[in-house]
């Protein structure tokens, strides 16, 4: 079996669902269930013995040690993190706690467990760390896309905390020989994306008749990858990645934010026309920019394609249509995640930005 951390979040829950569908291999899922963790994402696995859920913190070393000894996983995949840049600007503390200290404690527990393994079990063991393209900083318009050789230049508390965790993972390989793999992926989108992030926030606000808040001039560029493609890349890296290496994962889909918002509006105009006529685009509102906002990210994903034969299956057009359709069909999921804590965040963030 494998141990996944953060498997009740957006990417983690997609990964767990896809993994069990693709492999059938059991998963122990350790998640703290912060505001971003949602067991409802895993409802399809209720009563399925291949999914063992444990509520807990990756920073609880004794708990992780106990789980490792009891379940003896062949791999640990670390998705758990505080993941939202805007929240890291308001309150960086939890980002340092989970992304830096938590990853350190997790690595310590895993190092102890791995040191006790022998023979084939030790040979086959892997620690896969899920990271982000944001560690590389920001690109100018004509710069080449981020390759694995780019230096780290994180600009937000979030990306700095992820960069620190990547460095710890690297050091545990270099110093102790821990068999690690790291993936650095671009912006994901798809089902179960928490509606604090750009794409789901735009869908949810559009349908609710609320403003669609675009930061600054809306010309910041991100490289978008459908979440199912990120999950397939992680499975491939786990299966065939070279120990100690990092792999950049991206969709070759660089797009300015404003274009993303226009695309979402056009799909909603087609699939759920506004009752009173007109376009959802009329709800677009330009608001104050994010402090220190990175202008452009772009991923050069040639290494993972060349060495591991991985390529995304979805184009942006197919992926975004599926995503909008998923949100339209899952209004009940959206309603339930819009808890008190969510509403509090939205009023804090957008009262200041307007
Ligand atoms: P998310 O915020 O949706 O989910 C994070 C999950 O981790 C939640 O279920 C939360 O409860 C859990 N968690 C948080 N702190 C924890 C702790 N201390 N112990 C145990 N569990 C804890 O995040 P996501 O978007 O699914 O991102 C998953 C990973 O992928 C993160 O490491 C993130 O940095 C990385 N990543 C995300 C993207 C993206 O576009 N979302 C892109 C590249 C990389
Ligand atoms: O690049 C990978 C990263 O992508 C991940 O590591 C992060 O975990 C993930 O949250 C995401 O970070 P971003 O900051 O790029 O994602 P977000 O959805 O918050 O914002 C995307 C872009 O849209 C960004 O340029 C900011 C802008 N934006 C965002 C929100 C929430 C707006 O213009 N308006 C908004 O209301």
From TrEMBL:
Boundaries of each NAD(P)-binding domain copy? Answer: 3-323
Catalytic reaction equation(s): dTDP-alpha-D-glucose = dTDP-4-dehydro-6-deoxy-alpha-D-glucose + H2O
Q: Which InterPro entries match?
A: dTDP_Gluc_deHydtase (IPR005888), NAD(P)-bd_dom (IPR016040), NAD(P)-bd_dom_sf (IPR036291), Sc_DH/Rdtase_CS (IPR020904)
Q: What is its EC number?
A: 4.2.1.46
EC supergroup of this enzyme: lyase
Task: Tell me the Gene3D superfamilies matching this sequence.
Answer: NAD(P)-binding Rossmann-like Domain, UDP-galactose 4-epimerase, domain 1
Q: Which Pfam families match?
A: GDP_Man_Dehyd
Q: Which cofactor does it need?
A: NAD(+)
> In its keyword annotation, does this UniProt entry include Lyase?
yes
Q: Name one GO biological process term.
A: nucleotide-sugar metabolic process
Question: Mind listing the UniProt keywords for this protein, alphabetically?
Answer: Lyase, NAD
As one GO molecular function, the record gives: dTDP-glucose 4,6-dehydratase activity
The UniProt similarity line reads:
Belongs to the NAD(P)-dependent epimerase/dehydratase family. dTDP-glucose dehydratase subfamily.
Protein name per Swiss-Prot or TrEMBL: dTDP-glucose 4,6-dehydratase
- Give the classification, highest ranks: Bacteria, Pseudomonadati, Pseudomonadota, Betaproteobacteria, Burkholderiales
